[in-house]
Design a protein that fits this description.
alpha/beta, Zincin-like, 2 domains, 5-stranded mixed beta sheet, globular
Length: 308
């Protein structure tokens, strides 16, 4: 067996130099990583808001005694109790409208702090009355304060979103916003479209101020466009007025689809819950595209009997 020459150990000063160099390189990489994350957060506020939402999950808040699915900030106890009182009826209404029970008991987060609510809602915006995020309904403090008259309708509206998302597989294509918001308005009997009546929305449609059924899928409360911009009421918030008119029109259209053929409507919901694409699912259920059905709906509004 051959003899192997012994390797000479590197001098201590050389080893120290190498270690120092390794530490410096690691430090540079760490600094670069931190800088990259910081730049990403600065350039992509949506990423920053999403991370903040993950770190502020409403399910980590205390649960109301006897109502495990209602979580609240301590100063929102009275509001949480009000939500718990109306939740059973809201859940029942949504299940009836969607034609199916919830996949799991819905989580509702009730906030006392606008700052904490903004961090949790994934938008970084404290001015939105409520959102659905990761299968939970998050309620702004305004719903037990300035806008307390909207509490039941908005809770039911958000639970419609929770119901639909609860059945859909992770990563499934999201239905367009006009459909999800219209479905929630229909299920909640007008929640989210307060202040705009069916008659007012129908007249706006007749006058040419009609929503555009585009394919936008992400949460953007100003995203629903109109064929012609509706006139402004100077006494109301432009965004609120516009959004609620759009939501009311979408809700009326969804209600009309359900009345037209309830079996087809429920077939569409089951397909969406299974993660299938919206356009193909709608055509499979109703035999027509959304624009074609919308034209029928608009035409029906011009008849003496309206859209019934």
């Amino acid at each position: 067996m051959g003899r192997h020459p012994r390797r000479r150990s590197a001098p201590a000063t050389t080893r120290a130099t190498r270690a120092s160099r390794t530490i410096k390189i690691a430090g540079i990489w760490s600094a670069a990583l931190i800088l990259g994350v910081a730049i990403a957060f600065a350039v992509r506020p949506t990423l920053r808001h999403a991370v903040a939402a993950l770190l502020n999950d409403p399910a980590t808040l205390p649960a109301l005694d006897g109502v495990a699915n209602v979580h609240y900030e301590p100063r929102a106890l009275a509001c949480a109790e009000a939500v718990a009182a109306l939740a059973p009826q809201a859940i029942e209404r949504v299940e009836a409208a969607h034609g199916r029970p919830f996949a799991q008991k819905p989580v509702i987060g009730v906030y006392a702090s606008y700052e904490h609510y903004a961090r949790a809602n994934g938008l970084g915006d404290p001015g939105v009355a409520a959102v659905t995020r990761a299968g939970a309904a998050l309620l702004s403090p305004t719903l037990c304060d300035k806008e307390s008259d909207r509490l039941e309708g908005v809770v039911t509206h958000e639970l419609s979103h929770v119901h639909l998302s609860g059945w859909r597989p992770f990563g499934a294509p999201r239905p367009p916003q006009w459909f999800t918001e219209g479905l929630a308005v229909m299920a909640s009997n007008g929640g989210g479209a307060e202040g705009v009546s069916d008659d007012e929305a129908a007249q706006a449609i007749r006058d040419g101020y009609r929503i555009v059924l585009d394919g936008r899928r992400w949460i953007d409360f100003a995203a629903l466009g109109f064929e012609r911009e509706p006139p402004r009421d100077p006494t109301k918030s432009a965004l609120t007025q516009r959004q609620r008119l759009a939501y009311r029109q979408a809700g009326m259209f969804i209600s009309w689809l359900r009345r037209r053929d309830e079996a087809a409507f429920l077939h569409l919901l089951r397909a969406l819950e299974a993660g299938e694409a919206f356009d193909l699912s709608l055509e499979s259920a109703f035999g027509e595209s959304a624009p074609s059905l919308w034209r029928r709906f608009v035409s029906a509004l011009s008849q003496p009997s309206g859209a019934g």
